Amino acid sequence: MRVIVTGGNSGVGKATAAALAADGHSVVIACRDVDKAQQAAAQMPGEVAVAALDLGDLASVRAFADSVESVDVLVNNAGVMAVPLTRTADGFESHIGINHLGHFALACLLADRITNRVISVASATYLFSRLHLEDLNWERRTYSRWAAYGESKLANLLFVAALAGRGVRAYATDPGATDTDITRSLDMAEHARIRRLMHSPAQGARASLQAVTTDLPSGTYLAPRFNQLGRPKVTRLRRKAVDPDAARRLWALSAELTGCDWPS
Fold it and tell me: Is position 53 within any domain?
């Protein structure tokens, strides 16, 4: 199959892309840092291509989508975590703009060329989050980088629920606590202490790899057996992550903000 992995140049995305290529799939690493992606691709077996994609810039998302002739599986893996208040090229708060809106636009733009499924990498932080559709871009709230991250992950899950509701094969995955650049950059004093307990990138990639080939029902969530650690298993989502009204309202707002929508 032909698989696009966003953010496939490092961490869980790189491990996902490498495993897929080793299994004989044709992989496209789509990311902002093309040089780093080319270095990563050179270390992988099989057929691996590299393309520029900045999920924080809708013009880049559209340009990348225009270059894609067809794709079987889209893995929405790229993301930012717990960054200070910053905004994308289109003025969106970075977590919701990159983690959700950029991927929402990408999937919608590729809708007529995705032949198999969409996979979105989420996080258990959604458990502690609430969707604020009245202030999605943190223009009136006191900013919290962890709340912003968690809200974007809840949005990922609602997007998967909405796709499944539209008859699209879609899955949500969670790598669990994984030792990658996205965690090493957080200035966490305890990181060195707990690092030995965390998943490796290859272990973190297991849920996404399972989602690529599974025959489980669309909308299934695959997460570590022991919340943050262990092999992935089918995990029941809280009501707020599958609420059809919230999913519908988020979809409508996302389509309005990005100018992109799934064709009827």
Answer: yes
- By annotation, the residues acting in catalysis are 149
Q: Which amino acid is at 243?
A: D
Return the closest-CA partner of residue 122 out of 195, 221, 218. Answer: 221
CATH number of the domain bearing residue 225: 3.40.50.720
In which order are the strands placed within the sheet that holds 170-173?
48-52, 26-31, 2-6, 71-76, 114-121, 170-173, 221-226, 229-234
List all residues 6 or more positions away from 43 whose beta carbon is below 8 Å from its beta carbon. 18
Count of domains observed in the chain: 1
Phi first, then psi: give them for residue 134, nearest 5 degrees. Answer: -75, -15
Instruction: Report the length, in residues, of the chain.
Output: 264
Give yes or no for a contact between 100 and 193, defined as CB atoms under 8 angstroms apart.
Answer: no
CA distance between the termini of the chain: 25
Kindly report whether the global pTM for this prediction surpasses the value 0.85: yes
Mean pLDDT, the chain, as a whole number? Answer: 91
Q: What is the pLDDT of residue 92?
A: 98
Radius of gyration (C-alpha) of the chain in whole angstroms? 17
Q: Which domain holds residue 189?
A: 2-258
pLDDT digits (tens, 9 = 90+) for 11-61: 899 999 999 999 999 999 999 999 999 999 999 999 999 999 999 999 999
Structure tokens at 117: 């499924």
264 in any annotated domain: no
